[in-house]
Amino acid sequence: MAIEKRLCVLEKQVEELMLQKAKNSKNSSKPPSTDGFKKPNPKSRRKKTGRKSGGQKGHKGSTLNPSDTPDVIEDHRVTECERCKKPLEDQTPDEIVKRQVFDIPRVPILITEHRSEEKTCSCGHVNKAGFPEGVNAPVQYGELVQAVAVYLNVYQMIPYKRTCEVLSDLLGCEMSEGTLHNLLGKCNERVKEPLESIRENIRKSNVAHFDETGFRVGSTRWWLHVASTQTATYYQAHPKRGSEAMDAIDILPRFEGRAIHDHWKPYYKYLCKHGLCNAHHLRELVFVHEEYNQPWAEEMIECLMEIKLETDLQRGSGDQLSPNRIREFGNLYQLVLNKGYEENPIAPLAPDAKKKRGRRAKSKPRNLLERLDIHREEALAFMYDLNVPFDNNLGERDIRMTKVKQKISGTCRSEKGAEFFCNARSYISTAQKNSIRAFDAVLQAVEGNAFIPAL
């Protein structure tokens, strides 16, 4: 009996390990970076149109258009006949063919010297001519150089050393890493007013997306939290992942709209309305269908995709789904859940089983079933209100750049560096969502005229 019990325990452990090994970015919440070299085959739920990839027949292409006002004109003249060598310098050309080359002028950094006169009047008063506003030091960098340095480091995520190398190689500007750090600190101070406006915009929005991901600060694992809408983005790094960090960020505690997230339990501490990311549900359902061979999971995928298709079509007309259609989809959803419960019954406890503290362990399909059942209002929030999205893709897109930074630059070396990065990225992302280019937004901040989103 002891051997049989031990064998059952080992078989269960092997099954759990095999299921864990089968998880990837297509059937779970694991990021694509964990897939290694064995990437899973892409599985698109889009229906095939039968058309070839690329531009379709009749599609009007786009190309580089010539300028009507070129900066430089170079004339290439015909001076003699190629065959008989007759001089043609004075002959009027039959036709002039034009070709334009778009390029960047290679010029060294522009150095402007400001000279202020001093004159002593006969009355003894010394008169000094004033310097332009912003010219405060004997030698300093201009606003465009400062903006380029901040843009390269924060937006293009180039490390300090390589940012200084780019400035040296392309502009002949020998900037030190310490100076770059000081420029980032100055820019950080100038975006603090826009940041408070960004947070207030998100607090007052009807729908907002929330997400978090691991973020290295020095040698410690922190968490980067994001709160975003269609017009605003706010990032903040914090040592904690849960409600302690969310309270410190101070958006969710004062948020009264609908929060879209991935069922991370600390979100439910807050009294706002909630909406669940169905992209996560689809991946988990794929896993249940492929690894547990349960048909209800595929039926639930089809049910959710059918509702999504109809809500997408209805959203274009500006109307909500009819009550009858909502009722029909609700009945279909419940029918699939019932099939899932039939396939995943809870086995009765053995008479001699020992009582254990806490909740009873359940299978992954059963846990997913109960989540879709208990939180059906949040899972189907996009059906009841067409202003609610199907998934949390907006929040995930906004937070994805963190992984790009870690691949390019590694970690933030200090807590202050993480603050600079998050504040600047919050400001730039919000400006871009309001149709302002990233570099223009940075330049406005450097000039002391940072973009502030309207409430």
Describe this protein's structure:
The protein has 455 residues and is α/β, with parallel strands linked by helices. Among the domains are: 190-276 and 392-446, Ribonuclease H-like superfamily/Ribonuclease H (Nucleotidyltransferase, domain 5, 2-Layer Sandwich), CATH 3.30.420; 285-344 and 364-391, no CATH class. 44% of the residues lie in helices and 9% in strands. The chain has 15 helices and 7 strands. A 5-stranded mixed sheet has the order 5-4-3-6-7, sandwiched between helices. A hairpin with a 2-residue loop joins β3 (207-217) and β4 (220-228). α5 (192-203) crosses α14 (415-433). The longest helix is centred in the last third of the chain and has 23 residues, at 295-317. The chain is extended. The termini are far apart. 26% of the residues are buried. The model has no long low-confidence stretch (mean pLDDT 88).
Write the topology of this structure.
Blueprint: H1 2-22, E1 118-120, E2 126-128, H2 143-155, H3 160-171, H4 177-190, H5 192-203, E3 207-217, E4 220-228, E5 233-238, H6 243-249, E6 258-261, E7 273-276, H7 278-292, H8 295-317, H9 323-343, H10 364-374, H11 376-379, H12 381-384, H13 393-409, H14 415-433, H15 438-446
Parallel strand pairs: 3-6, 6-7
Antiparallel strand pairs: 1-2, 3-4, 4-5
